[in-house]
Write a structure and sequence with these properties.
The protein has 250 residues and is mainly alpha-helical. The two termini are 26 Å apart. The chain has ten helices and no strands. It is 79% helix and 0% strand. Helix 2 (15-58) packs antiparallel against helix 4, helix 5 runs antiparallel to helix 6 and helix 6 (154-176) packs across helix 9 (216-231). InterPro entries: CysZ/EI24. It is a multi-pass membrane protein. It comes from Bradyrhizobium iriomotense.
Length: 250
């Protein structure tokens, strides 16, 4: 698993991957900015008008509680862009990965598995559907987990584990569906749940690093292409660069 992670890291800045990397970063930055600003505007609206609306709905007995909530939301609104970017980054990377899954996988397969049958590109609508579905599921899970984040320690641990499960699931299924039907890819993921969750922990650690996490779609896809190959059973040995170049080994 660590070997697969190292190979994925080493390939991120390779010449064939640079174009994909810059394009994925550009898309991620646009999506993060739009969604984070939207979150900030929503919180600002609630802090300004939501308190009055809720008090009219719930009654004057809720005035004090709603004042406290409005104060908390006002602070959150000021941090909306920053916090929203952090919160939404795993969801954003899932969506971006669906756009570049085949570009990344093709490069990894040509570089490390030239003797094996190449994968079949996913239909664009299928890739986008999987990306959007995972992004929405990620946001839903995070909304459930969010109250626990305010519990020191435990909340951030739950947040990290949820990220590992979601990203491991998403990236592995995208890699596997190049060789299997969606049903077979999901079944394979379930059969190897512990291994894929452990791989997801590595991706979750990567996505938690500011700035660096913009490369998560490239790293996550490359990493899971290697993991899928390893979990698929016997295969030809990796052909090292010096062997491909004709230099004798040993």
């Amino acid at each position: 698993m660590l070997d697969a992670a190292v190979k994925a890291l080493s390939q991120i800045l390779s010449p064939p991957m640079r174009s994909i990397l810059w394009r994925s970063i550009g898309v991620a930055l646009v999506l993060i900015t739009v969604l984070a600003i939207g979150l900030q505007r929503l919180l600002s609206w609630f802090a300004t008008y939501g308190e009055v609306w809720l008090e009219g709905l719930l009654g004057p007995g809720w005035h004090s509680a709603l004042e406290v909530l409005s104060w908390i939301v006002s602070i959150a609104a000021g941090l909306g862009v920053v916090f929203g970017g952090i919160l939404l980054m795993p969801a954003i990377t899932s969506l971006v990965a669906s756009l570049f899954v085949d570009d990344v996988a093709d490069h990894v397969e040509r570089e490390h598995y030239p003797a094996e049958r190449p994968g079949v590109a996913l239909p664009f609508t299928m890739a986008i559907h999987e990306g959007v579905k995972t992004a929405l599921l990620t946001i839903l899970v995070y909304l459930i987990v969010l109250p626990f984040v305010f519990l020191a320690g435990a909340g951030f641990l739950i947040f990290f584990l949820a990220t590992a499960w979601l990203l491991g699931r998403e990236y592995f299924e995208l890699a596997a569906m190049r060789f299997r039907s969606p049903e077979e890819a999901k079944a394979m993921r379930r059969d190897n749940a512990a291994t894929i969750f452990a791989a997801g922990l590595i991706i979750a650690a990567f996505v938690s690093i500011p700035i660096v996490n913009l490369a998560t779609p490239i790293f996550g896809m490359a990493f899971m292409v290697h993991m899928h190959k390893r979990l698929s059973g016997p295969r030809p040995e990796l052909i090292e660069p010096r062997r491909r170049s004709g230099v004798p080994v040993g």
